[in-house]
Design a protein that fits this description.
- The protein has about 90 residues and is an all-alpha fold.
- The longest helix is centred in the middle third of the chain and has 81 residues, at about 10-90.
- The chain has helices spanning about 5, 10-90.
- About 90% of the residues lie in helices and about 0% in strands.
- The protein has one domain (about 5-90).
- The chain is rod-shaped.
């Protein structure tokens, strides 16, 4: 690259060539930046969706766990009732 004082000593053709080269680099960098911004926005949206899904899954897990505990309690009660009835059945014989 040229230092600022060297740019003044360039011929008009070299200045135009340098100008076009810099313009090309700027255009490429701006294009890259747009791609990066788009990717960032996409990732941001995906992360929001995943966070929403995570909350929904957490709620579902809590609900299922409560249901599981209730069913386990009912099962224990039924098993105890069965034992009592079987004892009564044996006493009736």
């Amino acid at each position: 690259m040229y230092a600022d004082d060297e740019l003044g000593q360039l011929s008009e053709e070299e200045k135009k060539r340098k100008f076009r080269a810099l313009q090309m680099q700027i255009i490429m960098l701006e294009s890259d930046n747009r791609k990066i911004v788009n990717e960032k926005n996409l990732l941001e949206a995906e992360m929001r969706k995943l966070k929403t899904d995570q909350e929904r899954i957490k709620i579902e897990l809590t609900n299922r766990k409560q249901r599981f505990d209730k069913i386990g309690f009912r099962l224990t009660q039924n098993e105890e009732e069965l034992k009592k009835m079987k004892k009564k059945l044996n006493l009736v014989r």
